[in-house]
Write a structure and sequence with these properties.
By secondary structure, the chain is an alpha+beta fold. The chain contains five helices and five strands, in the order E-E-E-H-H-E-H-H-E-H. It has two domains: about 5-60; about 75-155, Arc Repressor Mutant, subunit A. Helices cover about 30% and strands about 15% of the residues. It is globular and about 45 Å long.
Length: about 160
């Protein structure tokens, strides 16, 4: 018996896929063009509330995503990093070093980058708001084009 269900979220920018555990916790969010490597049962009912929130966000509305996240498999340090990243408001950025300082590990900026690279919850845990110390965007799970686009979108949002 599979422990996950896959939902398709249709947006004007393509179909996002959201993998939920059987308790309804979001395990992973896939951007358009990326798919899970293994097969999961797809729910024929769409997750309309999440699809609506995602579409509003992609249209430029500052949306808070209040969904339970399945954080299983993450380390304590990764979760500290995610908490620090969640405090970054839309339209703002912090450097990897600033996030490291927020976790009380000021020299762990590379570890912060590794933690964010392991983030299965982009948008929910907005790792796109973290940039290199020189101001360059740095990496992003869904690709640098998405990171640039998301940062531009959030810069235009009215908060």
């Amino acid at each position: 018996m599979n422990q996950f269900v896959l939902y398709s979220l249709k947006t004007r920018l393509g179909v996002f896929k959201m993998l939920l555990n059987k308790k309804g916790g979001v395990y992973r969010l896939y951007f358009p063009g990326s798919e899970p490597q293994e097969k999961f049962p797809e729910d024929i009912l769409s997750c309309k509330r999440m699809e609506n929130a995602l579409n509003r966000f992609l249209e430029g509305e500052d949306v808070l995503f209040f969904y339970p996240l399945d954080l299983s498999g993450y380390t304590t340090f990764q979760i500290k990093v995610f908490w620090a990243v969640n405090s970054i408001a839309a339209g703002e950025v912090k450097t990897y070093r600033e996030v490291a300082e927020a976790t009380h590990s000021p020299k762990a900026w590379r570890a912060v980058g590794n933690a964010l690279a392991a983030n299965r919850h982009p948008l929910f845990i907005p790792c796109h708001r973290v940039v290199k110390n020189n101001g360059e965007p740095g990496g992003f799970t869904a690709g640098s084009n998405w990171k640039h686009w998301l940062l531009e979108l959030e810069n235009k949002m009215e908060t």
